[in-house]
Amino acid sequence: TSKNLDLVFLIHTSQKVNKKTYVYYKQLIQDIVRDANVDAGNVRVSIVVYRKKALVAFNLKKYKTKTALLEAIEKLKLYRAKIGNVAIGLDMVKSKVFTTAAGDRLINAPNVVIILTDAISKAAVKVIDSSAQALKDTGTKIFAVGVGLTDVSQLERITPLPGHVFNPDTFLKMGAVRDDIVKQLEALQQNDEAGDEKSLTVENSNKADIVIAYHFSHTMKIPDIDKYFVPFVATILEKASIDNGDVRVALVTYGRKARVLFNLSKFKTSADVFKEIKKIDKKDRVKKSSGGDALKEIRTNIFTAKGGNRQDVPNIIILITDDKNSDDQPLFLEEAQLLKAAGVKIVAVGVDSANIAELRTIASNPVVKNVISVKGYSTIASQDVIQSIRGTTQALQEFRTPVQPQPRETTTGSRKEPIVTRTPPGRGTSPPAG
Description:
This protein has helices spanning 19-33, 66-74, 86-97, 125-136, 153-158, 178-201, 223-237, 270-277, 291-302, 329-341, 356-362, 367-370, 383-390, and strands spanning 5-11, 43-50, 54-58, 111-117, 141-146, 165-166, 208-217, 247-254, 258-262, 285-286, 315-321, 345-351, 371-374. By secondary structure, the chain is α/β, with parallel strands linked by helices. Helix 1 packs antiparallel against helix 2 (66-74) and helix 9 packs parallel to helix 10. Residues 398-434 are annotated as: Disordered. Residues 6-185, 209-389 form the VWFA domain. It holds the Pfam family VWA.
């Protein structure tokens, strides 16, 4: 089944490229789009060229048939230049191509940019970072092919996700990256559709795989953990059907790095889950806040088969923080987009001085429902807050004779952390685009 995609090729060719080697650029583009369902309107394609300035060769609404598109690519003019400003190119894509006037579909069609270049951009690092981030903040996925480059660190800054940067040795080998790119585009298209379908089931499903991720700033008062936060987490889960297997729970804390306290497969009873929640303590108070690392850990280690994830069950993240900003904000936003594209629902709870604007960016729509602002920890377990969180997820409202949390243990001991095996995320094999 063909899925929607709005695809832009962003091209730079240095003075080393001639008409013969430029053929390999065009062949790669043609090979990528050849099996795409252009005629039915599922896939739209644009090409942008960048030198010192950028120009749009054609936009997303220009060609509506595959025959016309392939012919246009074949006739694409060679624009060689000594200087290539990739930041200008990225800005052009965002402002002139990914717009409704240029044929972009704002919903139901993922936006993807594939950079093709054989040279390093001379633009300032901060300028490139800013332009790339502005585009990624819109949910756009970026891939990059650097031909013959001995250093791809610049491309990796633009798109730091694993497997998104390709580095063929020569122009002749450009075609070898085609299959990997197409496979990822197919997965993105599949995830986009599956995500839309799966997210719709969250509010009316009694089953759920739920991850609670929390961050305590170093200014949090230690007594507030036992007095307010632990009861808050326990109350959220007290009506969840953990004992009969409908609901699975994982717990993650994050500071400088994320730490999985237990994954979805670790505990099968509410008594065990509540017992572990009681172990939350002052050691989790830290100055650094790496929300991006936390979401990446959840995506790659928890929402996987080994992490206890179930393919036919909605995924929910309840993220709780009192920090003003995530110290790895670009990764934070990027990982949130990846999770949401895969159908994961993100509910964000901002306590005290938390950056609500940032949480609105990472939370699922509608943000008015999925972003909850709390004045302080003393009110976090109020009925209004609890009901707001439960209102986002049916599985938190079901009552199955829950086991109440036991009094906090007075004995000390080290928390056992699960052994986490890194496995690639995935929810099944995507069908080929066509």
